[in-house]
Write a structure and sequence with these properties.
7-stranded antiparallel beta sheet, alpha+beta, 114 residues
C-alpha cells in the first residue's frame, strides 16, 4: 500500500543525515546499492502472527551511497505484509490496530526531517 499522504516523499538530505535520522527513528537499512537504499521498520500483529513492514526508499540525486556527501531523495513510503519464507504483498491494507503506530512513526520521521 502506497502511503501517498505522508508528507515525506520528495524530501532531500545528505546521506549521512538521512541515515542518522531514519536509524534513530528505528528503521533498518536492509538493501542498498550505490544509487538507492531501502529502510524498513517491522510491525507485528501478535494476535495473528503476521509481520508487516513500513518501507521507505531513498534514491541518490547526487553522488553515491556510503559517501556522507551524497544527497538522497525519499519516495512515498509503502506498507506491506510479509509472506514466509520471503516476499512482500504491497497491496495489503494497514490493520486497524497498527494504523496509529504507523501514522505516529511517519509523523516522527517527517518532523525530524524538517
Amino acid at each position: 500500500m502506497i502511503l501517498d499522504q505522508s508528507g515525506i516523499e520528495g524530501i532531500q538530505k545528505n546521506f549521512s543525515d538521512m541515515e542518522q535520522i531514519l536509524t534513530e527513528a528505528g528503521f533498518i537499512r536492509w538493501a542498498w546499492d550505490y544509487h538507492k537504499a531501502i529502510y524498513d521498520m517491522k510491525f507485528v500483529d501478535e494476535e495473528n502472527g503476521i509481520d508487516y513492514y513500513l518501507r521507505i526508499r531513498a534514491n541518490t540525486v547526487k553522488g553515491t551511497l556510503e559517501s556522507p556527501n551524497a544527497v538522497v531523495k525519499l519516495e512515498h513510503p509503502v506498507f506491506a505484509r510479509h509472506f514466509f519464507p520471503h516476499g512482500l504483498d504491497y497491496d495489503a491494507k494497514i490493520p486497524e490496530k497498527l494504523q496509529s503506530a504507523v501514522n505516529q512513526k511517519l509523523e516522527e520521521v517527517k518532523k525530524k526531517l524538517d
